[in-house]
Design a protein that fits this description.
Length: 326
């Protein structure tokens, strides 16, 4: 369902916004509780009862985090993604999304199609309401299979730019904590995050390949990635295909179907952590291609841990998972 290149979709949407494709309806902005380092991002939320944090349960939907929320009184299935911190809600067009009766304010050009835009949306979770949100609604064709069957929308900045986000795979919960109230005192591995294009983040890791090469890489962090790692191959890369690599479909993305080889990396080092036998997708890239969408850490790698994303301090915290860690 999700693609290897899900970030490409976010990139298209980000480009549409930057190029002024959205109409005047986007101008309605509100402030939120607390202070944020993200001065360009304005949002509002209500914690009920008043608190410094809230816990939201989730389930696994394929290789995705899926939560339940409400829009205009209708129950919706919500994905969480951070390949790019997309500031607006992203709805996947369907008859169910049509039934939400969103407040349509205009359209935006996505390059090969046009999407509707909406505003004034309240997204309600138990204990948390994210208010007055803007959205892009991806188009669909009536009568054709829905590639996003089982999900209605995706949330990104509304979580990551308002809260420190703790994802506990052992308990299947997400804890959202106001950044000014978050005080980490655990023993997890703290990994620096570096801002990259389209409001993404990268972290540096080291891999040891099948042919004993030790290579440092800055990899995009993406909860939407289907494989543990995505690694570049080609004339501009030191990485060679491992002997067990097989050509496979990597899924559907913003630019259609993609293919690549899937094989095993001998060892991955993230901070002081050592992981062996890691599955990776190897993608052929041109010398001038960007890290974005070609080199990244995907959902199955995060699932090995209980992971915290603290964008306010540009850090990711990895703690051992009783269920998923080696």
């Amino acid at each position: 369902m999700k693609s290897s290149s899900t970030p490409c979709l976010a990139a298209i949407l980000a480009s549409a916004t930057l190029l002024g494709g959205c109409d005047e309806g986007w101008a309605n902005e509100t402030t939120r509780e607390g202070q944020s380092k993200f001065n360009e991002y304005k949002s509002s939320y209500i914690l009920n009862p008043p608190s410094d944090s809230v816990v939201i349960p989730f389930e696994l939907f394929g290789k995705n985090i899926r939560m339940t929320a409400r829009v205009n009184g209708h129950e919706c299935n919500v994905l969480l993604d951070n390949g790019s911190l997309w500031d607006d809600l992203l709805f996947f067009g369907s008859p169910n999304v049509d039934s939400l009766q969103l407040n349509i304010v205009g359209t935006t050009d996505l390059g090969n199609s046009t999407a509707e835009t909406a505003a004034g949306i309240d997204l309600e979770f138990d204990g948390l309401t994210i208010t007055d949100q803007r959205a892009v609604i991806l188009p669909y064709v009536a009568g054709l299979p829905n590639p996003w069957e089982g999900v209605d929308l995706q949330v990104s900045s509304a979580f990551f730019k308002n809260f420190v986000v703790e994802i506990n795979f052992d308990r299947m919960i997400i804890r959202l904590t106001k950044p000014e109230a978050y005080d980490y005192r655990g023993n997890g591995e703290i990994i620096e995050m570096t801002p990259n294009v389209f409001d993404s983040r990268t972290s540096r890791i080291t891999i040891e390949t099948h042919d004993a090469k030790v290579i440092e890489l800055d990899l995009l962090l993406d909860l939407g990635g289907l494989f543990e790692l995505y690694l570049p191959i080609g004339d501009n890369s030191e990485i060679a295909l491992p002997p067990d690599a097989e050509l496979k479909s990597l899924g559907m993305g913003g630019f259609g179907a993609s293919e690549g080889h899937v094989g095993t990396v001998k060892e991955v080092r993230i901070g002081k952590l050592r992981l062996t036998g890691v599955q990776a997708a190897f993608i052929e890239v041109e010398p001038d291609e960007n890290v974005y969408g070609n080199s990244m850490i995907g959902f199955p790698m995060f699932q090995r841990f209980n992971v915290t994303f603290d964008y306010f301090n540009e850090r990711m915290i990895l703690e051992s998972s009783m269920i998923h860690s080696e």
